[in-house]
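Page 47, continued from p. 46.
Same chain as before, 260 aa.
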Amino acid sequence: MPLHTDRAIIVTGAAGSIGYATAEVLAEQGAKLMLVDIAGEKLEFAAARLRAAGAIVQAFRADCASPDDVQAYVDATVKAFGRIDGFFNNAGVEGAIAPLHEYKLEEFDRILSVNLRGVFLGQAAVTRVMVAQGGGAIVNTASIGSERGLAGGGAYNAAKHGVVGLTRTGASEVGMKGVRINCVEPGVIETPLLNDVLEQMFDGDVAKGQKIVGNIASQERLGQPREVATVVSFLLSDEAGYVNGVAWPIDGGALATIRH
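Result:
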């Protein structure tokens, strides 16, 4: 039987590469989906593609850093499906590349607003529903930058360290109430967001950047969005019923080795 038959799952950042790939895997596994993103046209396109493949999908445009918007997409999911069984708390932005001592305050605040505040708001709102209904599973998106310094990416790095803290704290608070909270730590995954960063770092030579950053993994390649999606699907499923408070690297071995 598919892992997520008739289970209601929210995916934020669903118009992006990792969010969409995860929604696709969850749909293949039988889930009913609420897709959330601030990019309305891309979101509707993603939802339409999944519906065309036979999935049960609704779409909700929201700013994941807005408390009102977060509560609205949570309420809409409960209204549509009656409950929330899973939540991929994934929305995020990369941000500018600059040394911390030169980082613009407004940019620092923007990155933390989405990547940390947004994760907190989503986790808190969905946890309240799951505690009331007696169970559920949440997966937050952290990063290998949660475990290491990341020169030039101080705001992103700080936020992703914070995501691990939110994950572990939440897991310790509601595990006994049937709610599991884990996070994934993607490495260098081939997405438009990564390419935008590489364009900044390598003077527009994205191909050169991909080759160099791919080599931080012992597998010496970039990861693909679906390779993140399948891990998220597992963590949201009952097959991971005794996995709680974990930060799971999906990085081709980058954190396990000292390379380049």
